[in-house]
Inverse folding.
């Protein structure tokens, strides 16, 4: 394999929110590529539900990204980190107009991403590593039932750009991937409406919803030498939904 499209020996990735569907696909791909991976879920119940299966090189731990102390302690236990992937996220349809819910969504999706970036900054500077934040199509295309989610993902995009500029001198690259409609547990109920499912599929260029694995490939690429000149960018993985 061309070295530009591979991971260095001993490569270690931390996948925050790796217990989720997209996070699990990312963690599995890194393992397939020869990396060791530490994935997280919010708590033991979240980990018990994950589709991630035990395999060599993979560890799963509980982490509450809304806790400064927990994030700092978690990061301190890592000696080498080559990639930090931030894909912990929540939404609460129709409830995000309640201020407490709005604040919670931002604390997980946006502030949580900032917490982990800050906590792993020194380790990533040592390895000249990469951060990939999982944004969303909804950073660009708003939906009325999830104002906090849309605001948080818009914030993730701008945080990505700001950190890319701030940390370039340290050798840290910071990019984001913005998925479109991906088949995950979070939208399982909506996908049960076949008319809704088909409307979304028909809007894409490929006439289908995405799969978590479709997102994982873009994330891995942004952590490889082949993407060494890419920072502060947002890669859309939406099947062409926003193209037309």
């Amino acid at each position: 394999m061309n070295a530009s499209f591979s991971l260095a020996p001993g490569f270690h990735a931390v996948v925050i929110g790796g217990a989720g569907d997209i996070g699990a696909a990312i963690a599995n791909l890194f393992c397939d590529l020869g990396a060791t991976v530490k994935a997280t879920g919010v708590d033991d119940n979240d980990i018990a539900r994950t589709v991630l299966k035990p395999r060599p090189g993979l560890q799963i731990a509980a982490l509450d990204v809304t806790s400064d102390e927990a994030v700092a302690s978690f990061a301190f236990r890592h000696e080498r980190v080559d990639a930090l992937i931030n894909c912990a996220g929540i939404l609460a349809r129709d409830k995000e107009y309640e201020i407490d819910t709005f604040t919670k969504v931002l604390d997980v999706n946006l502030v949580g991403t900032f917490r982990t970036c800050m906590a792993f900054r020194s380790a990533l500077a040592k390895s000249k590593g990469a951060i990939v934040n999982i944004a969303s199509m909804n950073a660009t295309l708003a939906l009325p039932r999830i104002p906090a989610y849309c605001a948080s993902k818009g914030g993730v995009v701008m945080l990505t750009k700001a950190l890319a500029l701030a940390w370039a001198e340290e050798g840290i690259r910071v990019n984001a991937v913005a998925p479109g409609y991906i088949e995950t547990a979070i939208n399982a109920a909506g996908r049960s409406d076949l008319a809704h499912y088909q409307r979304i599929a028909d809007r894409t260029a490929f006439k289908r919803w995405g799969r978590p694995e479709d997102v994982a490939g873009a994330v891995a690429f942004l952590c490889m030498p082949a993407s060494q000149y890419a920072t502060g960018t947002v890669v859309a993985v939406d099947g062409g939904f926003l193209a037309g």
User: Anything to note?
Assistant: Helices lie at 21-32, 44-49, 68-76, 99-127, 147-167, 188-191, 194-203, 212-221. The mean pLDDT is 97. The radius of gyration is 17 Å. The first strand starts at residue 12 and ends at 16.
